[in-house]
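Sequence in, structure out. First:
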Amino acid sequence: MKAVRYHFYGGSDVLVHEEADRPVAGAGEVVVRVAGTSYNDADSGLRAGLRQDLLPLAFPHTPGLDLAGVITEVGEGVPGWSAGDAVVALLPADAPGAAAEYVAAPAGALAPAPRTVEPADAAALPLVGLTAWQALFDNADLKPGQSILINGAGSAVGGYAVQLAVRTGATVTATGSGPTERTGSSTTS
């Protein structure tokens, strides 16, 4: 199969598109044919080696924490999932990621893919959607009828937070910035 991987830490120039072994489902895992992944700051920080003291990577490493796709294989001890199920997942940061045709994913990381969104588009949901969910419900314990202020509503996480809070029945006040005018000068020597 084809995959985007890197063999050492660095900038985007370390990414290579190459052949890789197709994964097989281990116990507690499924194999997903990838419809899409998304790249975010967490992927960039891992690739740059900024978190290697906490999360050392095994090389070569396939990036892509966010995943959307269809299950093709179910490993031992995986109840509730079947081949053909459309899923999204936030993969463990130090595991092989979704920038490949197939990826092995822990069954506990899976959620059903939204039916009203194209599979490749659903790949933008896991990290930012989960972050918004945790902030609203796990940390703030948001309930219907409560009021909430969401700063940065125009950001990826903020946009999901507004939608989730409104759907919950909260009164939402949101802030965001308008277009920024870039001024200044640059000098070369």
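Second:
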Amino acid sequence: MSNEPTTPLPDSPFRPEPGDRDLAPQFVLPLVVRIERAAPPPRTDALETAARAVLVMLGDERSSGDGVWAEAMRDWQDARIRKVVRRARGAEWRRAEALPGITVTGRAAEVRVFPPVPLDGWPKDLARLQVSGTDLDDPEPPGGADPAVPVLWMNPGLDMSAGKAMAQAGHGAQLAWWELDDAARAAWRDAGYPLAVRTSAPQRWPALTTSGLPLVRDAGYTEIAPGSCTVVADHPALR
């Protein structure tokens, strides 16, 4: 069964077809996850921490108004909302931490998010980091999500690397942020951006994608087919 809408889509930053956003200069939001060989973080913890890192960057005072990152954030959000997750350990992580950005910690995961950079203009200490190798596992299945907390529901039918899934979770969090009013954004920020990432039950996924909640359709640059529905952002304020 197709979940494609019958009305035309707006020029979404995630829309697979070319649009006006493709004519703008393209930027990317870099995220670096710390993966030490002896102690990699659990997959779900890494996904949740990456999503929170995107929200922390969006809500930071340096990202709006006359903030030092505001222009880069506006340029990025006017074009495709690309996010790339790379991994680092040891000295690589220490070099990444020395660059302007924000480190967000989960239960065990650490993710550093940086202000957007041109698609072909990464700082050398980030450009040299690997994209591959972010295949993380959960030692135990995550528990049920608290219905009072925003949940980013992942498509149960897609096989994505942890790095790809981290970027998709970040997309979902960002779409929810955009749809919230100022009061709801402030409440989420003041609470520390609580959220959960869970894989939907297969039988529930069709209803989620047609619920009217924010839905990420991937542009298909890596790993999965263009137009794939990857995440539904279920924020209580948007239900």
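Remark: The CA atoms of residues 66 and 210 lie 38 Å apart.
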